[in-house]
Amino acid sequence: MAACKLMGGLSVLVVGAAEFSWSARRPGFGRKVRSDVSLRENDFVTMPLRRVPAELAAVPGTVRGRPPREGPGQETLPSASAPGTRPSTTPASTSPASTTPALPARIAFRRFWPLSKGLRGRLVLVCLCVVVAALAETAAILLFSDLTDNALQRGSLDAFWAPAAKWLGVAVLGAAVGYAGNSLAVWVSERFVMRLRARVFDHVQRMPPDFFQRHRQGDLLSRLTGDVEAIEQLVVSGVVGAVSSAFSAVFYAVAAFWLRWDLALATFVLAPLFWLAARRFAGSIRSVARDERVADGAITSVVEESLGNVVLTQAYGRESAERARLDREARAWFTASVRGARLSELYERLVEVIETVCVLSVIGLGAWEISAGRMTLGQLLAFAAFLGYLYPPIRDLGQLGLTVTTATAGAERLVEVLDARPSVTDPASTPAAAAARSGPAPGVRAVPPSPGTLRFHDVSFRYPGAQDSAKPALARMSFTARPGELLIITGPSGAGKSTVAKLLLRFYDPDSGTVALDGVPLHQLPLGRLREQLALLPQETLILHDTIRENIACGRPGASDAEIVAAARAADADGFIRALPDGYDTGIDPHSARLSGGQLQRLAIARAMLRDAPVLVLDEPTTGLDALAARRIVTPLRRLMRGRTTIMITHDLNLAPDADRILVLDGGRIVETGRHEELLTRAGGAYSRLHRSQNNAALDTGELHLPLSDDGRPLSDDRRPLFRDEARLSGEGDGRW
């Protein structure tokens, strides 16, 4: 009879242990939103020996249902440079295959941990919920043991109600704590991701144009998404996961020792094998994780570039070539993904073997103890449950090391971006300025309403990364542009024309010399306030994926509808806008076929008018426009330029006759300066050679001749912006014009 009871008990134990082992390894069970964030739930109400694997530990290979994408680093602000000098830009990779020095996990954690400021209180509450949930599970197992020995084996219904009521109370407590902790954990996790992504985005927005020439856009997108999420695994989910696994392991170990210390000690001998297995696989998984992230970024880049140039792809029949590019990058991703999956699977199977050895050891020793009468069936089942609950947290602590390894691979990629320094330092963001918010900081000049006098004095500049032996983009350049004056800068390709605009907008600082606005060097002006004084019409019309109204309003955020309409009227854009199906609410995007090139340029002019800046920079305003479209933007341009300091960069000499002054550049130097008629009289001069190379037939038509006022007076004779007068007369706007 005793043998039958023993065999029956062992059958229950084996079935229960098998059920536990299956449930403990089910991937994704109990995971919420972020697959690595969930709390233990008390599942003993429905299945005594079934463990719900719901620790907050980060599980390698799962970030929102896909392999982990490494993470970022805490932004390091650029160090202050000497006034007027350009700080060096840390070279960043130009190739997806580039590598950075291995980043230790502790360094990555310390770098990003400050971003959790303001979230740590909630993080502590999550950890407390984890502890309470683990205690609830421990209590449930002990209650199950009591129920087995006193109610089931004795067949006493009276002995059932008390432990059953306690069990129900523990289940309710576990459910409530699980819900609260899980919800709070998701909130903390997503808030951290939002904060980190915003920090990285702000940093990238401050980088100079050459940074984006060195980095593929798709790769940057990959770092802003997957890599940021992987850092969350390291800083938030990793912390909670470590607390969850550590406390759970301690509670279950203490309970197991309390039941039978000798049996527990015998089974714990195999525990170090989990740590050894994780340590053995960490290096390989780290390498594969980085390869996979790099390949993922390359795929994103290929897709982004191909879709962005789909017209060119179709026009030149490059569909097969683009598919070949995608296949090439996809093969690299496939190789890394398969290798990573094999490593993870091998690790999981090895852990399963270790767990099986442990469970069989318990069953064998327990059977011996029961047969000797030194242990009850309920105690053995409870001990097996504690052991079953103990090994997964130990295993998860080992897996947490692999997760950290994977996350640091992403941290390396993001730190590479964050360690790149902006080419210019904003004096308003220096510690001296931050410490003197109540008054002007040393070296920071206030920006009063600017008349708009621009001055280049002995300016030389070489682009970052250029060899010292290379010719400078600008060499000892000096000129002055005064309010109301139109200054045209022309010359052959590569002469340095666009470089002048980049220095004016302070995308870069000169290597030597000074660029000043109204006598104040640009590096002494707060960067945001400086750029409020300038309006740029770039060579390519920049269009947002938004409505026409918002595209115009980005010239001055917060502008009223009346001001937006007034700007569109002054740019001769109101008519075609109202003809569209949704008028100003019509959606457009950079590849929109709704509007012609000339119409898009008039939207850009309306945006510049709304900005109402005293200094105007026009970069090839007629590029890409046919003669008719170019003629249609002449009147809006004339309205825009009147009363403003205007620097027009152009190779189109049809725009030159009405300029107050023309600068001819060659090799980064000013080789000629004067008015149109004066320069034409210099036989053999650089300007006359450029003029002769133009289409004489188009020049003779005078289609693009730009008179600056209807009565023929020079622009400098009337300093009042015509656009402001029109807005005031129409009664529209808020009076700022």
Strand content: 5-15%
Radius of gyration, whole Å: 35 Å
Helix share bin: 40-55%
Low-confidence stretches: 1-101, 431-445, 697-737
Number of strands: 12
CATH H-level homologous superfamily name of the largest domain: ABC transporter type 1, transmembrane domain
Question: What class, by secondary structure content?
Answer: alpha/beta
**Order of strands, widest sheet:** 6-9-10-3-11-12
Largest sheet: 6 strands, mixed
CATH classification class of the largest domain: Mainly Alpha
CATH structural architecture of the largest domain: Up-down Bundle
Descriptive keywords:
737 residues; disordered C terminus; Rossmann fold; alpha/beta; six-stranded mixed β-sheet; disordered N terminus; ABC transporter transmembrane region fold; 2 domains; single chain
Itemize the secondary structure elements and their pairings.
Layout: H1 2-24, H2 105-112, H3 120-152, H4 158-205, H5 209-214, H6 217-259, H7 261-267, H8 272-308, H9 310-315, H10 319-371, H11 377-418, H12 431-434, E1 454-461, E2 474-481, E3 486-490, H13 497-504, E4 512-517, E5 520-521, H14 527-532, E6 534-537, E7 546-547, H15 548-553, H16 561-570, H17 574-578, E8 587-588, H18 597-611, E9 615-619, H19 627-632, H20 634-641, E10 645-649, E11 661-666, E12 669-674, H21 676-680, H22 686-693, H23 696-701, H24 722-730
Parallel strand pairs: 3-10, 3-11, 6-9, 9-10
Antiparallel strand pairs: 1-2, 1-4, 4-5, 7-8, 11-12
Helix pairs in contact: 1-10, 1-11, 3-4, 3-6, 3-11, 4-6, 6-7, 6-8, 6-11, 8-10, 8-11, 10-11, 16-18, 16-24
